[in-house]
Amino acid sequence: MTTTITRTDLIQVLEKAAAIIGRNGLCKRYLYDTRQAATGMPLADCRVDVIGALNTAAHGTPRYGGSPIVAAAEELLRQHVDAASVVAWNDRPGRDKDDAVVLLATAAAQLRAEES
Fold first, then answer.
1. pLDDT digits (tens, 9 = 90+) for 33-54
2. What is the Cα–Cα distance from 36 to 42, expressed in whole angstroms?
3. CA separation (Å) from 49 to 4, 17, 113, 114?
4. String of DSSP letters for 10-38
């Protein structure tokens, strides 16, 4: 079975991921803040990195779920970062949640503009 990912699907995941980081905060060096999770906080409420936010937006948890839309969104974001990967961009010193929200929102806005 082949899943077709639409531009609208990508926009929704990117915007939802931006909202998740805006609400939960940004984590570095892992998909989610394991210290928060160790206290019993639900994974969907923990700080996340950009990839963790995409996973949460797509399937409710920051853990990898093998979701094609997450892979497509990550590939799209690679075009918007000045690093070898989205993870490398996320983990740079000084990077904060506002930077991550802007990255995700900008990518979504560009896709939305291309729809018009």
1. 999 999 999 999 999 999 999 9
2. 8
3. 26, 10, 26, 27
4. HHHHHHHHHHHHHHH-B--SSSB-HHHHH
Other CB atoms within 10 A of residue 9 CB: 16
Joined together, the tokens standing for residue 61 give 């948890």
Token readout for 13 is: 């995941």
Give the residues of the chain that fall short of pLDDT 70: 1-2
Contacts 24+ apart (CB under 8 A), 87-95: 87/49, 87/50, 87/51, 89/50, 90/26, 90/28, 90/49, 90/50, 90/51, 91/28, 91/29, 91/49, 95/26, 95/28
CA dist 91 and 113 (Å) reads: 29
Find, among 31, 34, 36, the residue nearest to 48 by Cα: 31
